[in-house]
């Protein structure tokens, strides 16, 4: 680790420094700026120097999260809609996962869109929020003091030492921040090579489906950009040539493996992609965090890489903003590493399995795989489990001892850590109607910055429920949003027949699921690391009247000299939000 002498804090100091101006760094910058947190973003890649468009698919969960900063609708307009993912073996259909059949999202589709175009859209939102990307090379990091200091070398050789409260490395698989912080990049298994390229194909191919074509000789994948252009990915046993793979290689493989014939035109570019599997040993070292490819890389099967990084950005963004604003306790940042590293390790597992299954060459293995997929298709299991997996709707932050604890359950009953179909937005997207929210009135709207209380009556909204709801609203601090979701029938299989108080995080994951009791709610808020105001003397907490001496203890707040300043309060609606008819 390089030691850099501290300097006086500049007048334009930002509390957060993001290293990396790709999709992950841009989304994180938008998240923080949307919540009033100034950021500085530095990218080591000169503008316009990227030769290849890397990630090309944006899945439904990413669109839901991108809607928080107004980027989902512009992306949907710019990309090509992906309605299904289909699998073939020896040119015969195995089954399809239909994204268009997803019911609990405003975005029942994926998007095929070049990464540079995705970056353009999110960067436009960043600029609209008052941010910008600077271009320089990170050449040093000192994380030994109270605040990290990053050394940046600018064009022309000038260096600058930047001190920030927090540093996020979103600078890709060869992350300088990860290397300078001394964080190991761990992995296992052999690398798999793919030849990839973009270009036109003249033939009878689906223009709204992602195709995986498996044969005993290898695998082939197609992703449609629209307008007759496709991304091709071809497994290759090795590549020792000194030049990029030629068009003839792709045409030969297409003739051998594709279910339909097509003539590949001149390719815009080609390269060899090495599908590595690595996860950083930790995603946090003090005030330094890793996000996106800086923290994890895996096989391109399922196109999960950039989407996983976007989830990193949102998970870290609302937590870090809350700590900086003083509405969340600093301890909430400890959950970032455990939640997102577990999620990354799960993606490593599932994408590695999908890659290996597609490369089976022994007849016995191929027969078993094909039989299992066809059975899953006929029983509905392929759609039921495959669609949420591909969409990343099954990502969960349940307490887990092993990766198996994070796998989907056989029932739809929601548990703490699971995603709910509730959505938020900091503000309308450019061109969107004022106050517009994802899904319109079909799903509840939640607070994008603080946990929201969802109140569920169960089987019916009787008089006892009305009293319970009133007690919950009286207990909830005024700056928190509350929504009675009893009128939404879609929650019945998720929440069951009994009354519930559901505390849901700004990213839509369940923070707590308890009986609708004021004491339970107060405890849930504390466990969610919320900084609660001390109740006024004479107020009732858990059925007991608070005295002056007991006010601070009842709040569970830190001592006055340790307290973090509270954010301005937001008025809660006088009546619970109503369900759409």
Q: What is CATH's topology name of the largest domain?
A: FAD/NAD(P)-binding domain
Instruction: Give the % helix.
Output: 25-40%
Distance from N terminus to C terminus (CA atoms, Å) equals 60 Å
CATH C-level class of the largest domain: Alpha Beta
Give the tally of β-strands: 29
Q: Mind describing the biggest β-sheet? A: 8 strands, mixed
Summed up, the helix count is 14
Total domain units: 3
Question: What CATH architecture label of the largest domain applies?
Answer: 3-Layer(bba) Sandwich
| Computed structural class | alpha+beta
The CATH superfamily of the largest domain is known as FAD/NAD(P)-binding domain
Gyration radius over CA: 25 Å
Low-confidence segments, given as residue ranges, are 1-11, 431-435, 536-581
Average of per-residue pLDDT values: 85
Describe this structure in words.
The protein is of the alpha+beta class. It has three domains: 16-188 and 277-391, FAD/NAD(P)-binding domain (3-Layer(bba) Sandwich); 192-275, D-Amino Acid Oxidase, Chain A, domain 2, CATH 3.30.9; 409-531 and 566-581, Glutaredoxin (3-Layer(aba) Sandwich), CATH 3.40.30. It contains 14 helices and 29 strands. β24 (452-456), α11 and β25 (482-484) form a beta-alpha-beta unit.
Primary descriptors:
581 residues; alpha+beta; FAD/NAD(P)-binding domain; D-Amino Acid Oxidase, Chain A, domain 2; Glutaredoxin; 3 domains; eight-stranded mixed sheet; six-stranded mixed sheet; 14 helices; 29 strands; 23% strand; disordered N terminus
Question: TL;DR of this structure?
Answer:
The chain is of the alpha+beta class.
